[in-house]
Amino acid sequence: MYLLLIGILGIALKYLQIGPVGAWSWWVVLSPFGLAVIWWWWADKSGYTENTAMAKMEKRKQERIDKQRDAMGMLKKRK
Predict the structure, then answer these.
(1) Is the dihedral of CA 49, 54, 60, 66 positive or negative?
(2) pLDDT tens digits, residue range 27-65?
């Protein structure tokens, strides 16, 4: 996500000719988009995306279980 934001900011600065970015080549300005594509490809191939989603679901599940146990008075109070 950060690479996309950097790319959009770079395009805006290049288009408006602001600062040193205005003098840069378009290849340099557009490179964060290529890096974002490579990152997403790697995240999908390595299982990073799936592991992150599974961890988030597991955390939500545990919070839901803790909330139900607390409502039933089964969860120990922490000091």
Answers:
(1) negative
(2) 999 999 999 999 999 998 998 888 889 999 999 999 999
**Same domain? 4 vs 31:** yes
CA separation for the pair 59, 62 (Å, rounded): 5
Domain with 74 in it? 47-79
Is there a contact between 39 and 3 (Cβ–Cβ < 8 Å)? yes
Residue type, 8: I
* Number of domains the chain contains: 2
Prediction pTM value: 0.65
- Map residue 65 onto helix, strand or coil: helix
Residues 49, 39: Cα–Cα separation, whole Å: 11
